[in-house]
Here is the input.
Amino acid sequence: MKFDPAEFEFAVPPSLRAALEMLSQSHAGWLPIAGGTDVMVQFAAGTLGSRKLLSIWNLPELRRIDLLPGEVQIGAGSTYTDLREHETVSREFPLLVRAASWTGGIANQNRGTIGGNIVNASPAADSLPALLVYDAELVLVSVRGERRVAYHGFHTGYKQMDLGPDELVRAICLPRRFSTYFSYARKVGTRNAQAISKVGIAALARIEKAPEDAAEPIVEDVRIALASVAPAPIRLTMTEQTLNGRHLDPARLALARQKAMAEIQPISDIRSTADYRAAVVGNLVTEFLVKLREANTPQSPVLARWNALGVADAESEMLACCGSRNWARRMANRRPIFNQAELFPAADEIWRNLLESDWDEAFRSHPRIGESHPKALSGRSAKWSAGEQSSAASADDALRLALADGNREYAKRFGRTFIVCAAGKSAAEILEILQRRLRSDEATELREAAEQQRQITRIRLRKWLTE
Ligand SMILES: Cc1cc2nc3c(=O)[nH]c(=O)nc-3n(C[C@H](O)[C@H](O)[C@H](O)COP(=O)(O)OP(=O)(O)OC[C@H]3O[C@@H](n4cnc5c(N)ncnc54)[C@H](O)[C@@H]3O)c2cc1C
Here is the structure.
């Protein structure tokens, strides 16, 4: 211990008014102490800025929670336990209560106050992101009177704030308009409990019900706040703007991840590196948006299972639908995908943007029309091929011979397997298509083959979704 307690003065004023009178004596240099869970750490470290401690612990004017029609006023002297046990606060402000539940251990929650958390102004403080997304306002009080400020402008930099030396935080006011919002919070630390966060997030969003003709709902009033990624907790306003009024399709999720990672100013310190923090922010923002979607979009059970697989397993499942490994990998990396309306455009777009060598790989994975394929990639792929080509396989001998001849000629002319979306076509139709395409030039035929593979992939994806 670097300080001698005997050098300290400790005053316990009987009321808020008396405490404010003492603070107004500018020469006296009193330092308020509420639960003392930060002040005593500074005391032990020998870094306290004053040797005159003014207790505001348990002052009834500060330790109360008032329910008004438009807002809840939480006294700054309320402890984390007070918040966790309060029925209305728990119901209407779950993000604050979740933050309270992971602030230190039970002893700390019985003693630490929300006012202390605000004024201690750690960039890693757990309750502050929740205050940001709930649009909290602070009531500051001194003998000069009261003033009310928006919390989002209160912390102006690292441990900097809009609070005079004679002022106390009296109450935190939370508007009662968020109880129907979807909420999400996480604290990423070395351990789940009793650890300072490497990154903390609190997020809210409202879902607008979709008009009849819209594929899915859009999100409004998205609010995302983070701790431990800047000198003070911040809102991700640019990321929020890219989301408001939009569908949460995969492209929008990817954009939001990028924006969030670009919007923060993390540092490297003893708890983590800046790069790690940025990656975690990207993951947390994505997880919030995925959960938001899941909560509001009917999700195909097959896709839900696939979304949860590791990349290698997800890729291998896709290979049965199209034999290009690059296509399958990119599909796996495009997850989460929630429904057919997203799956098909993603599959098409990835297919179109592959190299010719990737297309060839997919073509090679098919048996020639009318033949079985010794190297079929999976049992499922072989089964689907057999079904798609059943009419060619059961054609009479003359037709099968003509198809085999045509296949050989095609391979000689274009150097690859003839691809046609055979499902629903008779052997005679397939032969006629083959003969027509043999007359095409190379570029036209390559485009045609790629289009046929796209159609085959789509049919197989549809089967996969309903299996
Ligand atoms: C073991 C341990 C674990 C912890 N874990 C976490 C954690 O997981 N997450 C987290 O966010 N924090 C954590 N903390 C930090 C601490 O518990 C919180 O910041 C707590 O909310 C501080 O409240 P307090 O009442 O104890 O503040 P105090 O220590 O009494 O005061 C802190 C600062 O706030 C000022 N102050 C207090 N109340 C007011 C007021 N009403 N008006 C003006 N100024 C005021 C004081 O002057 C002082 O500068 C931990 C601390 C410990 C010791």
